[in-house]
Write a structure and sequence with these properties.
The protein has 91 residues and is mainly beta. The chain has strands at 3-10, 13-14, 19-21, 25-32, 38-43, 46-52, 57-63, 69-76, 86-90. The protein has no helices and 9 strands. The strands form 2 sheets. The protein has a 5-stranded mixed sheet, with no helix packed on it. A 4-stranded antiparallel sheet has the order 2-1-4-7, with no helix packed on it.
């Protein structure tokens, strides 16, 4: 049940882990080793929402309403098996 974030982007442009953006929305792309795995997206400990993987691929759009550091993780619905964190600074 490994989940991983492999890319965060806005309008097709990648934002490196620890990078910044002024965009109002980003897309989180990831992978799971369990096809059609339900998952949730978190910013720190705040759950932002969830969906089900498309096969083993994960895509999720996130609004960035505030200027702050967002620390995204993916987790299984039960809150376990967190992915690698990915930090994006919204300015």
């Amino acid at each position: 049940m490994a989940l991983s974030i492999i890319r965060v982007s806005t309008n097709g442009t990648a934002i490196p882990n620890g990078g910044s953006t002024t965009a109002p929305k980003v897309t989180i792309s990831g992978r799971t080793d369990t096809p059609d795995q339900p998952f949730v997206v978190r910013d720190g400990e705040t759950e932002l929402g969830g969906a089900t993987a498309d096969g083993t691929s994960i895509y999720y759009d996130v609004d960035l309403p505030q200027s702050k550091a967002y620390v995204f993780t993916l987790r299984t619905r039960d809150g376990n098996n967190p992915s690698n964190p990915w930090t994006v600074y919204k300015s």
